[in-house]
Amino acid sequence: MLGLNSRDFKLLMIVIFMTLAAPILLNPFPVDSALGESFNAGYPALMQRFVIFGLLAVGFNILFGLTGYLSFGHAAFLGVGSYAAVWMFKLLSYNIIPAMLASVIVAALFAVVIGYVCLRRSGIYFSILTLAFAQMSYALAYSVLSPITNGETGLQVYADDPQVLMSAGDPVVPHLFGWEMNSSVTWNVGGWQFVFQNGYYLAAICMIIGFYISIRIFRSPFGLMLRAIKSNQTRMSYTGMNTKPYMLAAFVISGMYAGVAGGLMSAMDPLTGAERMFWTASGEIVVMAILGGVGTLIGPVLGAGIIKYLENIISKINSDILHNWFAFMPDWMDNLLVNILYPFVGKGWHLTLGVLFMVVVIFLPGGLVQGGQKLGALFSRKSKSSDSDATTAGTANTNTPAE
Amino acid sequence: MGILEVKGVNKRFGGLQALGDVNLSVAENTVHAIIGPNGAGKSTLLNVLVGKLIPDSGSVMFDGQSVLGRKPHEINQMGISRVFQTPEIFADLSVMENVMIPCFARRDGAFRMHAIGSVRNEGDIIAQAEAILADVNMLAKRDMLASALSRGDKRRLEMAMCLVQEPKLLLLDEPTAGMARADTNNTIDLLKEIKEKRDITMCIIEHDMHVVFSLAERITVLAQGTPLVEETPENIKGHPKVREAYLGEAQV
Ligand SMILES: Nc1ncnc2c1ncn2[C@@H]1O[C@H](COP(=O)(O)OP(=O)(O)O)[C@@H](O)[C@H]1O
Ligand SMILES: [Mg+2]
């Protein structure tokens, strides 16, 4: 189906279902309940972030997962894409089509230049070069490029902007031919509340398309060449393959994904600043991919979702909420537990992320996807009891790197 | 004129003259062996031929064109494939994928953007890859990860990867080093078979005289970076200069 083998097709279907049903799946608790207040994640602003960062991580994985080249400046493309989109809003209209096109094209051009320079080196030198480029872009956006980026204030749309394609009745928020990004339908069922927002669905569809394209790339001859480059670049050249254009193509595709992600961010909220290009943003993308599982199809999406969930959910938890959880315990125990957990919640959510990241990297070098596979293997072994697993030893299925 | 003409090639590594005025002519469709003690410069010579090293002076002509200054992938596309002394394979890929990549290189050239179609649908590539795996008796291992292969199988895989390109010139750097006797004999048979099946020129570096005398039509003896003699196998046995170069090494 859709040119995919049955396993990949199943995976795609799961991703489509999860993203389309996210407004329901992520709001499992009634709105006004304590659990709902703490753990519901089905509100549009957060779900947008899930899919936009998911898309970003999927694109990053095409470079890092397939070729092994670790870009530490990927947020630069995100930033450039955001700026390009806001400029289209300023110059043309709030329609997101020209904005998204501009995001992709500008990010691609940017990636060609940066890629051409950075790919002269490999390994750690490549990473440092990309980092340097991104930090340079960040610094430039704050200083000499202020006329384009609006410096510290951030780029936004003003009433006196040309917006030459705007006509009288057009919406004054980003829209797709009148379909406004920030409008939504709310569905109340008992104590539950589900919000279906246009913007989220647009971003979700972009993510699904991006995910589908990434599966096709993983299974294509091009994907095979990239994996071969990762495995042995020397053999690649002595086999008559020019690794440079392959690498550049991977870099540019990856940068285009980031450009789309940046464009989507602007479409959700037409305001952008240089901090989107800061190195911590690039680092976050790397962490997402590694946490989920580098080189696997679903891993980066998973990693992006988990990090954005932790960031938003754990950072909301404060000591009052903790005390509420442990209210049934004796006071001394309650206080002890709250004191232990307190550093890990609220502003300390990075600490939780750090611990999680270390545990994953040490015990599951293949990321959470590997964890899932191990669990799956454990269960199937239990159910099949002594079924021999000799077939898995030292074999690899030709066309299916682990999903 | 041979298919490969090396003239006056010099290469220094600091104070060491690794290659000193090397002249070599390899005739088309022959097996040419290069022998010589360790450190004689044999691998260095191959590195020059495949574009890994640029000589300080001299010329290297292949098929009427100079290879000097060309990149390794360009030289490969001209028709020179190389088996390395320590196998260079794609360790993280399956055996099948390892041989499919040279098939793609041969069909699509040094670069082709082929990002949407599935590898599974590349019928002709799969057929070629399977045929060569059958030739080297590795079809049963097609789905194994290359890193899980035995040493001998890794060498055979690398040889299959080179052969499937149907190169005009195949360079082999000690293809049987570290192999058991049986494996060595298999390799000799394989190379002989290849030689019979297609037009191919081979240039083989070897320590094992059994291999050399089973395969080679011409033999060049290299010592301290300089060719001493070039002869037929019959005439090389007992050649005084060869005895001299190999003094203390294996009996010739
Ligand atoms: N890249 C290099 N840098 C410095 N010295 C080298 C290099 N490659 C080979 N040599 C030296 O050149 C000489 C010839 O090496 P080599 O061609 O590998 O010999 P062999 O005939 O055993 O294959 C040796 O002394 C080796 O140490
Ligand atoms: Mg050698």
From TrEMBL, chain A:
It is a multi-pass membrane protein. Keywords: Cell membrane, Membrane, Transmembrane, Transmembrane helix. The keyword Cell membrane applies. CDD domains: TM_PBP1_LivM_like. Residues 382-403 are annotated as: Disordered. It is found in: Cell membrane. InterPro entries: ABC_transp_permease (IPR001851), LivM-like (IPR043428). The chain crosses the membrane at residues 9-26, 46-64, 71-89, 95-117, 124-145, 199-218, 245-265, 285-310, 348-369. Residues 388-403 have a biased composition (Low complexity). Its main location: membrane. PANTHER family: ABC TRANSPORTER ATP-BINDING PROTEIN, HIGH-AFFINITY BRANCHED-CHAIN AMINO ACID TRANSPORT SYSTEM PERMEASE. This is Branched-chain amino acid ABC transporter permease. It comes from Loktanella gaetbuli.
TrEMBL record, chain B:
It comes from the Bacteria. Pfam families: ABC_tran. GO terms for molecular function: ATP binding. Residues 4-249 form the ABC transporter domain. Keywords: ATP-binding, Nucleotide-binding, Transport. This is ABC transporter ATP-binding protein. SMART domains: AAA (SM00382).
